[in-house]
Amino acid sequence: MQLNLLTICYLIASVTFILGLKMLSNPASARKGNLVAAAGMTIAIIGTIFLYESEGQRLHNYGWIFGGLLIGGIVGTLAAKKVKMTAMPEMVSLFNGMGGACAALISAAEFYHIYKVHQDAPGTAFYDIVSVGTYITIAAETIIGTISYTGSIIAWGKLNGRVKDYSFKGQHIVNMIVLLLTLVAAVFAYRSTLDSIFIPFILIGFFAFIYGILFVMPIGGADMPVVISLLNSFTGVAAACGGFLYDNKAMLTGGILVGAAGTLLTILMCKAMNRSLTNVLIGSFGGGNKTAGAATGKAQGNYKEISLADAAMLMSYANKVMIVPGYGLAVAQAQHTCHELEKILEEKGVEFKYAIHPVAGRMPGHMNVLLAEADVPYEKLLEMEQANDEFKTCDVVLILGANDVVNPAAKNDPSSPIYGMPILEVEQAKTVIVNKRSMKPGYAGIENDLFFQPKTSMLFGDAKKVLQDLCAEVKAV
Amino acid sequence: MENILNWISDNQQIIYIVILMIFVGIEVIGRVPSVLHTPLMSGANAIHGVVIIGAIIVMGKAESDNYLALILGFLAVILGTLNVVGGFVVTDRMLEMFKKKK
Known about the structure:
heterodimer; A: 477 residues; alpha/beta; Rossmann fold; 2 domains; six-stranded parallel sheet; 8 strands; 7% strand; B: 102 residues; mainly alpha
């Protein structure tokens, strides 16, 4: 009876996961979808705690279980509530890493459990105890979970600037070798006898640990969303392996669902940037490949600066001003100030719009979330196609810390590493003002010809500071 | 060879679930607008936190003198909960932003 009840719990959970994901992919129902999935998860967890039976035995160690749930729950809630909107992407990455680590720990515990049960016969080969299928599942859970863990931690470090891009010659070969070593260790462990299994098993984890680091290390920060999404689907697969081990349908469906949806999402994200997944993983932006070298080698032209007063004047007398927000706006936390400028200019009768590139910032949709936080009305946010139509009628475009997404090289220069990426065609507007902290190139590490064009002028400084000053100046006009 | 065939027929139910779920996963998010990529990723992230169930089972099955299993299980429960709770809360915060617009 109790077990049947548990089956129902898992069934409900599986259905809510599917429904939740479905609802999450539609703006109108997204928030509800998240809650639906969360409710299903709660049912599955509570059901497991109180109804699970294995070989006629109920679970014990309730103190430990609730202790863990309590600690994780409190820390998780606080972390998720406290994190700034700008730091959302790295938070997602961090949570993903936790899931990966959880899967890896479970597989380690399962390994140890098998060892414990058969302890009396230390000479038995591991393959005599566990079937190939089961072993592959355990090993896969260890490997994938660990890779997902270290990879996510590196991605987290990269997004908050603690870890720099790093790659060396022949890194792909080294990566391949490390991955191969992981698999060799896995095979070796399977062939070992029980008493000598610990070292090969630790080696599996160790090599997977290193591989996760090496895998993410050379990929440029701009591509981190794609990587996080990919690691996300990895963790899904690891969770599904766990579901297989315990013959647990909720884990299995949830894990595979995320694995499949995550992979598709990764591909969709790549498409939004007009790049292929292999391109992201192998021909990484920050990797300093030859094409990037050629582009940076180009002689720098002259750029001109504009004073705050002039910029304010230009904008006050414009009919239409468009903002192109980028990562610079996010790091400077300038979204509220930006909204303020919008209000001041609108009082003066200036039409004010935002042009949002799908991958502006550090994650697709990042800018929408930030600007929505600052109460910018939805209708003012233009998607790329709309924005490109409207630039023609626009007097002033103000670019706030965006770079690669407005780089004309993506359209004109086939040798550029970002060639083919859809961009915001800001040069159609009458004047372009670019706010940046310096002339340093963006994440792709390439020069931007836009800055040297005659209709472009530069306004250096931190986005928030500049916007505040602009507000004051515009008010004074 | 026979081993593998046996394994497949022993686990056919699970294999069916896996294959069908792959299609469901792809079908379900097929037409997501790019604005929702981030929240969707975050939501999916929370859902794979279902791995917590495995952690609870490990924890609950461990004998009370088996300290290694207890510690592994305890850590796994904490990490899994972080993933689930943090994931859903972060997603909700992101989506809250979207709601205000209307």
